[in-house]
Amino acid sequence: MPPLSLPLALTARLSPVAVLATAGWALASGPFAPAPTATAGHQSAQKTAAQSPSAPSSTAASTTYAGAPAPCGSVTAATVKSLVPGAKTAGKEIPSTDTKLRRTCSWNALKGYDYRWLDVSFEIAASDQAAQKEYKDRITEKSGGGDVPGVGDAGYSVVNLTTEDKQQTREGTVLVRVSNALVVVTYNGSDFETKKAPGTDEINKGAIKATKDAVRALEGGRAG
Asked: 184: which strand partners?
């Protein structure tokens, strides 16, 4: 087989890159305002109420997911083999500046002239509301796709075709929100012999298949 010349964009993707935590996703909040001064009798009543099991908690509501799970075990070996032929099923985790907020695993392989790349990311927001906003912002940026029913609290997929130096690459992205977590899957492919890209249906179904694995792993607590 003659040496292959990968398009610049794909060559860049083959090199490990640092994955930065999403801007504005710092899990911090301002300090609580000090309680007003009360009389001794009132203070005693407040203390008794705080110790009572029925007293409401003053802490913020807990979130479903406190941190991002390890992503490389979130997609089954069978799925990896079917979507990325020739790739190591263990995958490779991409370095992150904050693994509590975001973790990503990648699988890629060139088998013959066919190239496939799969990324799976878990991102954690401070609350369900923050995740909802991030989800809406992202699907607005990636217009032209459609809903993915029956997965997580909300799901969306979009497929795009790009051409560089006459080489086509088709990439599908699926975004799913599960409580305060986002699952982001990217799947793309190219044929370096024909210069064509895989069909839209193949890429879209592949991306959704990997997403369903990842969401099941997240909800079942077995991603890792």
From this structure: 121, 175
